[in-house]
Design a protein that fits this description.
single chain, alpha+beta, three-stranded antiparallel beta sheet, two-stranded antiparallel ribbon, 3 helices
Length: 141
């Protein structure tokens, strides 16, 4: 088999406090002695089709948003300081796609919880924006 070219795809990945670009090289091969087809490995699946983020990058955005209560505009500012220019719409798109992929897990959990005789929960609070007053109020999970 003789290499006749390759396709290269790049994805954005995160290691806490360290962003990096993962490069995937997929060489193309063809046999010089026969008239066989061009052979190439399959491209890895992406959560965002033709997009940069890896699963770890999207998980980082979601955990920052819902776990650390960091809104998208603030995350965009943090990433810009690290040289990564992402706007709020992009971060929201990534979160929406992740929610789509996580929906079967949420449905399964809802089904299992509905079957339970009793449910126990605490009253965890978090500050949420109160648009009318321009301040924050206490929100419950």
């Amino acid at each position: 088999m003789t290499k006749i070219g390759e396709d290269v795809s790049k994805r954005l990945d995160v290691i806490p406090a360290q962003w990096r670009v993962l490069v995937t090289r997929r060489p193309k091969y063809i046999c010089r002695h026969c008239s066989g087809p061009v052979v190439q490995a399959h491209a890895p699946e992406h959560v965002v089709p033709s997009g940069l983020p890896t699963e770890a990058a999207i998980a980082h955005v979601i955990v920052s948003k819902f776990g650390d209560h960091t809104p998208f505009y603030r995350q965009a500012e943090i990433y810009a300081r690290q040289g990564i220019r992402l706007d709020r719409a992009t971060l929201g798109n990534w979160s929406g796609r992740a929610c789509f992929h996580l929906q079967p897990i949420a449905d399964h959990m809802r089904h299992r919880l509905a079957m339970a005789d009793r449910l126990f929960m605490d009253e965890t609070t978090a500050p949420v924006l109160d648009p009318g007053r321009g301040q924050t109020k206490k929100g419950y999970f």
